[in-house]
Specification:
mainly beta; 172 residues; single chain; Jelly Rolls; 13 strands; 6-stranded antiparallel beta sheet
């Protein structure tokens, strides 16, 4: 049996990796949630902020831009190494370069203050547009992934913290 192989996509030990990332919050639609993404002294990325439900808001996100396409043919999915606050998050993947395109989501729940590796098989991502499912969308094309991201939503009001060590593609 062959050993699993991983391909590093983002390793936040290199602070330059954060240069390709941007934050988008519900302020784009009139909400007041706030978040930021910054490098830590220990070589991770720290996604923190506060989700507010005021003005019909309720989400914060951070995603890479201009780093694709990532050709991950032959990979089974994405592995992320994270430490959270016990809240639910979504790993997001986009296969187009447009700001208003849809994205693929993989939900995961963190363990409070504990490092964990989350494996997100491509087959388990669901297509969504502005939070709504797109059941007729085609599956992810691993050969043309344009960006990766993290999202907190689902009416989880209040402060949040998600620390990210790495994003990798894995192959069984």
């Amino acid at each position: 049996m062959a050993a699993e192989q991983e391909t590093v996509i983002f390793d936040f030990k290199n602070p330059a990796a954060l240069g390709a990332w941007q934050v988008i919050n519900d302020t784009v639609m009139g909400g007041v949630s706030e978040s930021g993404l910054k490098a830590t002294r220990t070589g991770t990325a720290l996604f923190t902020g506060e989700v507010s439900l005021k003005n019909f808001g309720g989400f914060c996100s951070a995603s890479s831009r201009g780093t694709g396409p990532h050709d991950l043919r032959g990979s089974e999915g994405i592995a992320i190494r994270v430490k959270g606050d016990g809240k639910s998050y979504k790993l997001t993947v986009k296969t187009d370069t447009g700001f208003n395109g849809f994205s693929y989501h993989f939900p995961f729940v963190t363990k409070k203050d504990a490092w964990m590796t989350v494996r997100a098989p491509f087959r388990d991502f669901t297509a969504r547009f502005r939070g709504m499912p797109l059941p007729d969308a085609s599956p992810i094309d691993p050969a043309g992934i344009q960006s990766f991201g993290f999202l907190i939503s689902d009416r989880q009001e209040g402060p949040f913290t998600l620390e990210i060590e790495s994003i990798k593609a894995y192959t069984p």
